[in-house]
């Protein structure tokens, strides 16, 4: 705290005390030198008062505050002058010279050890001057009461400076923390926007990819159907139109962060709807089975698994040209497992694209595990596992 007081800036109280100290030196020097007869003593007193005024200012002035050195210089110079005046004049009026130095002592002595050294040395100075001036008489009690009041005034002024310094440091700290919070807030906002963009792009990829795969497959088959049966071709065109409209609705729901299925539907019902539409528009045979007793899971887990199923079916048709897909969901005690196996072309090395990467991110966000196996001309198997207990806690 002493270092903080030394490093503080010059304030209005410092200016006020400096002004009062200047008037005090001028008044007392004029009076003492004026009543001195010997010219040599006049010059000695002049230089003494000059030192009393200037030497403490070496350690206490704008841009340089060293309270310990100031206290020592002020105590030695003004204290010795007070004892000299008490010895020279031996009257109670000499106590007036001590009042302002006591204020300055107390103003500087705000921290340990000065907070107790200051009053102790001031008391020693007061008693020494009283003894030298032979003032242990009927006026001593009055002086013993009045003199400490000036020390208390200085101490209170010093406390004001200390409190102001603490308040300034507190305000600076609060402003610094507010600035840091603003920066964190902006960063969080940026991350939130980025995360939302990623979510929308992932959902649009899943939705649009699934729908357009079905639409493209149906359009590719349409010329052959038109040659074979005009009426069936017209029905297929209507189904493709309905599928495109549903895809538009899914895109809108994705933007509004809604699940592509009604929230009251079970996971199995949602899976059946996705599989039914996929089979209808791609002509791919999909076998769907449920292992274990189906139970309610969180909307987040349901939404993630539906998107993973769409991505797996889309990849099986688009990249693997699969004609048969096997989908199985298993409700175990502590986990839900989705497994999608196709008879497509397969590959020797899996190169995850945007859709697969998105699928992995979705599963991992639920503390789940995803694995993929593929072999040339033997199809691909995707297995997703989600811990049900953790999902229940979250929802």
UniProtKB/TrEMBL annotation:
Known catalytic reactions: ATP + protein L-histidine = ADP + protein N-phospho-L-histidine
Gene3D superfamilies for the chain: 1.20.5.1930, Histidine kinase-like ATPase, C-terminal domain
EC number(s) reported in the record: 2.7.13.3
Recorded coiled-coil stretches: 167-194
Keyword Phosphoprotein: yes
Record's keyword annotation contains ATP-binding: yes
Domain spans labelled Histidine kinase: 207-390
Membrane-spanning parts: 12-37, 43-60, 67-86, 114-133, 145-165
Key words, A-Z: ATP-binding, Coiled coil, Kinase, Membrane, Nucleotide-binding, Phosphoprotein, Transferase, Transmembrane, Transmembrane helix, Two-component regulatory system
Gene Ontology molecular function terms on file: kinase activity
Pfam family, one: HATPase_c
Name recorded for this polypeptide: histidine kinase
Protein source organism: Niallia oryzisoli
């Amino acid at each position: 705290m002493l270092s903080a007081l030394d490093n503080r800036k010059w304030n209005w109280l410092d200016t006020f005390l400096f002004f009062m100290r200047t008037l005090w030196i001028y008044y007392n020097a004029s009076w003492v030198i004026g009543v001195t007869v010997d010219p040599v003593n006049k010059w000695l007193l002049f230089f003494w008062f000059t030192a009393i005024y200037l030497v403490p200012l070496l350690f206490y002035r704008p841009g340089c505050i060293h309270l310990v050195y100031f206290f020592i210089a002020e105590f030695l110079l003004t204290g010795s002058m007070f004892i000299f005046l008490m010895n020279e004049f031996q009257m109670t009026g000499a106590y007036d010279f001590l009042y302002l130095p006591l204020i300055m002592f107390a103003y500087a002595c705000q921290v340990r050890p000065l907070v107790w050294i200051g009053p102790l040395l001031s008391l020693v100075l007061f008693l020494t001057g009283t003894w030298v001036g032979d003032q242990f008489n009927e006026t001593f009690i009055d002086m013993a009461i009045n003199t400490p009041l000036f020390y208390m005034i200085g101490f209170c002024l010093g406390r004001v400076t200390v409190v102001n310094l603490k308040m300034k440091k507190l305000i600076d700290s609060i402003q610094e923390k507010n600035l840091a919070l603003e920066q964190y807030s902006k960063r969080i906002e940026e991350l939130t926007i980025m995360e939302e963009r990623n979510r929308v792009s992932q959902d649009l990829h899943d939705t649009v990819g699934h729908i357009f795969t079905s639409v493209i497959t149906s359009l590719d088959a349409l010329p052959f159907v038109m040659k074979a049966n005009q009426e069936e071709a017209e029905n297929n065109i209507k189904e493709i139109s309905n599928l495109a409209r549903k895809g538009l609705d899914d895109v809108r729901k994705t933007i509004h962060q809604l699940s592509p299925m009604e929230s009251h539907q079970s996971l199995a019902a949602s899976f059946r709807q996705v599989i039914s539409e996929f089979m209808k528009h791609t002509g791919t045979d999909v076998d769907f089975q449920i292992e274990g007793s189906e139970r309610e899971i969180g909307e987040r887990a349901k939404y993630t698994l539906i998107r993973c199923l769409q991505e797996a079916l889309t990849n099986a048709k688009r990249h693997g040209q699969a004609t048969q897909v096997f989908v199985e969901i298993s409700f175990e005690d502590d986990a839900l497992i989705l497994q999608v196996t196709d008879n497509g072309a397969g590959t020797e090395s899996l190169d995850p694209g945007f859709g697969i990467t998105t699928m992995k991110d979705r599963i991992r966000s639920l503390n789940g595990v995803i694995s993929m196996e593929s072999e040339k001309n033997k199809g691909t198997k995707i297995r997703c596992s989600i811990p049900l207990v953790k999902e229940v806690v979250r929802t």
